[in-house]
Design a protein that fits this description.
Layout: H1 2-12, H2 17-25, H3 30-39, H4 42-51, H5 54-63, H6 66-70
Helix pairs in contact: 1-3, 2-4, 3-5
Length: about 70
């Protein structure tokens, strides 16, 4: 799933904000979604974090490796 997350994050770099939100909302697996968040550019991370329900954001942050959170 890491390669899938890498591919999703890379593709999202070429999309407009509404498309980024749509693509991310289609990622249902928490482990993949959290890995995508780790790999996004900072601006894209902020865009998606602001649009996520708080509970979903907490779940995804909990899924991240501690090493990823420090990056």
């Amino acid at each position: 799933s890491k390669s899938r997350a890498v591919d999703i994050a890379a593709a999202m770099g070429h999309l407009v904000p509404a498309e980024k939100k749509a693509v991310f909302s289609a990622v249902e697996a928490d482990d993949v979604a959290s890995e995508v968040l780790v790999r996004l550019e900072e601006g894209d991370l902020h865009l998606l974090a602001e649009s996520l329900p708080f509970e979903r954001l907490v779940t995804l942050l909990d899924q991240m490796d501690y090493d990823d959170e420090a990056d």
